[in-house]
Write a structure and sequence with these properties.
CATH topology of one domain: Arc Repressor Mutant, subunit A
CATH class of one domain: Mainly Alpha
Largest sheet: 3 strands, antiparallel
Oligomer: single chain
Shape: globular
Structural class: mainly alpha
Number of helices: 28
Strand content: under 5%
């Protein structure tokens, strides 16, 4: 072995010298490092020079870049059709497992396909889903028949399948697959969304009325969330129908009986989704026509479901806050609006509700005599839209009556559109009270005549009345001298010696505890999971009884039992 090894080394050395010489020459030209020598495979296989390898690699890399196939662009319509078909699978799973979370997931996926909805897309999906024509599928296609882009040739060919499908079903024993009612309602909701987005209000109202009639006899808990969404769009269609609110003859008045019947049926069936949706729709309906008394009676005679969805709770608290603000119950309105803003989504896609609730909350805080935090107006989604309200807060906080009146005249159209104009008009007394409070802090004594000139009041009698009311309400700490006609301020005490810090902390603690309770109530667990745990516990107890019985009978010693000692006897 040593001789062979020496021969092998003697043979390889000249080749190595030759290769080293060639590499030394190439190294001078290309300045490349030397290869290591000493392995048998390296003596046989001569690697190419690095210059050639680099060229080959560059060519190969260029070739792979050019030959690499690019991802084809995704057709948005094809993706929308695939998403709709995937939602049908989720609906079937919701019915088979009796789990409403799959239905909620389907409803949350509607915005992703909303932009691609068209008569052509909806008709094609319906034709592909309903292999055998049914009365419901005929009604769906009939509703889309007058729309632009409707595939009439495909619809006619699909209708011709009816006779052939009936004859085939008679010959064969297997019946065609039955389409679930949840699928019918889901397609109907998509058609409602399409009509609403295309501003086809008349067709949408007519179609929605037929859908409500279809839903009334159905009593399935898997349809609850779908039925709630159908009622929501039906109410939206009637709000856009002439005459519009706040006219007393508005078309929304005609839907009240339908909504009240739906509320009664949902309460009897314990359909909490439809119950929560219908209550919020009724409150919205009453407020649109300024029927505050009827809305208050509805609140007093109904109980909002505790397990309602978060969006429905936010809407209910917002409408409840508006009603209480109109009824001069500002503290309760403030609590409801705080809850609505906390539950409202702050994303740019759903910032409209958050903006509306924040506007009303600012006005209510001003009516309560508080000044809203300036950080509210610095939020990106609120900075531009709350510009008139920021000027309103500045006018109220400064106590300038003239600036307040000019501001209400300038932005009257904006405040009317936000339904806060009548509440803002009530702020005049608060502006005067704020001015009086600032004067009480600035002057130890001031005459009523000077107060009239500074606040723009008509007479000294009105100034005296307003000051007396401010003293009684606790806005200022002062005394009135009726004979000499002046107001004398008292020394301001320490705030921390009063109960105000305690009340502030108590309100925050109550809000945190309420949020914790709501979070616990909103937790969801797998259905029938407790039964499995009870079954396992029962089996464990039976094994313990059998083991105890064997120990008593003498078949097993106590030392052979689990843990050596058994205390279950």
């Amino acid at each position: 072995m040593s001789g062979d090894k020496g021969k092998r080394n003697s043979v390889s050395r000249p080749n190595d010298h030759k290769r080293k010489d060639s590499k030394s020459k190439s190294q001078k030209d290309t300045q490349k490092p030397k290869d290591k020598v000493g392995d048998e495979e390296m003596t046989v296989v001569v690697p190419p020079s690095k210059g050639d390898a680099g060229k080959n690699e560059d060519v190969a890399m260029n070739g792979t870049d050019e030959a690499k196939p690019k991802d084809p662009p995704v057709d948005p319509k094809a993706k929308a059709i695939a998403d709709i078909k995937a939602n049908l699978t989720l609906l079937e799973k919701a019915v088979s497992l009796f789990d409403p979370r799959f239905t909620l997931r389907v409803l949350r996926n509607i915005p992703s396909v909303r932009k691609q909805l068209s008569a052509d897309l909806l008709a094609r999906v319906i034709i592909e889903t309903y292999t055998t024509p049914t009365p419901t599928s005929f009604a769906l296609l009939k509703a889309l028949g007058d729309e632009e882009g409707f595939p009439r040739a495909d619809a006619d060919a699909w209708v011709k399948k009816k006779d052939s499908a009936q004859s085939a079903s008679k010959k064969s024993d297997t019946a065609p697959k039955e389409i679930l009612a949840e699928v019918d309602v889901y397609f109907s909701i998509l058609i409602q969304v399409y009509f609403y987005d295309t501003k086809n209000i008349e067709s949408g109202a007519e179609f929605s009325e037929g859908l409500i009639g279809y839903l009334k006899p159905l009593n399935k808990r898997t349809l609850d969330s779908l039925a709630a969404r159908a009622y929501f769009y039906h109410s939206l269609f009637l709000e856009e129908t002439d005459p519009k609110p706040p006219s007393p003859n508005a078309a929304v008045v005609s839907i009240r009986k339908t909504l009240l019947d739906a509320l009664r049926t949902a309460t009897l069936r314990k359909d909490q989704d439809t119950q929560a949706a219908v209550i919020t729709l009724l409150l919205r309906n009453y407020l649109s026509t300024s029927h505050i008394t009827q809305a208050d009676l509805l609140i007093s005679h109904t109980q909002f479901p505790d397990s309602a969805a978060n969006n429905q709770v936010a809407r209910y608290l917002y409408y409840l806050g508006r009603i209480r603000a109109i009824q001069l119950n500002y503290s309760e309105a403030h609590d409801h609006l705080i809850g609505a803003t906390r539950k409202a989504p702050t994303s740019y896609k759903a910032s409209g509700f958050y903006q509306a609730s924040t506007k009303l909350l600012i006005v209510v805080e001003l009516l309560m005599g508080d000044i809203p935090d300036r950080a509210i107006f610095r939020q990106p989604s609120l900075e531009k839209i709350l510009s008139p309200y920021l000027q309103l807060v500045q006018a109220v906080s400064s106590g300038d009556v003239n600036a307040f009146q000019n501001l209400t005249q300038k932005y009257s159209s904006v405040f009317r559109a936000d339904s806060t104009y009548t509440l803002i008009l009530r702020l005049r007394q608060n502006v005067i009270k704020t001015g009086i409070r600032m004067m009480s802090l600035s002057y130890a004594r001031i005459s009523l005549r000077d107060m009239c000139l500074r606040l723009g009041l008509e007479s000294e009698e009105s100034a005296e009345y307003i000051v007396a009311k401010a003293i009684r309400d606790g806005v200022i700490e002062a005394t009135l001298d009726h004979e000499h006609g002046y107001m004398r301020s008292k020394d301001v005490g320490d705030v921390y010696s009063s109960n105000e810090p305690f009340d502030a902390y108590s309100s925050r603690i109550r809000a945190c505890l309420a949020l914790h309770d709501e979070s616990v109530k909103a937790m969801r667990f797998p259905m029938n999971q407790h039964r499995l745990e009870l079954k396992k516990a029962q089996e464990a107890r039976e094994r313990e009884r059998e083991l105890a019985k064997e120990i008593v009978d003498g078949e097993i010693d106590e030392e052979d039992g689990p843990g050596g000692d058994f205390e279950g006897i």
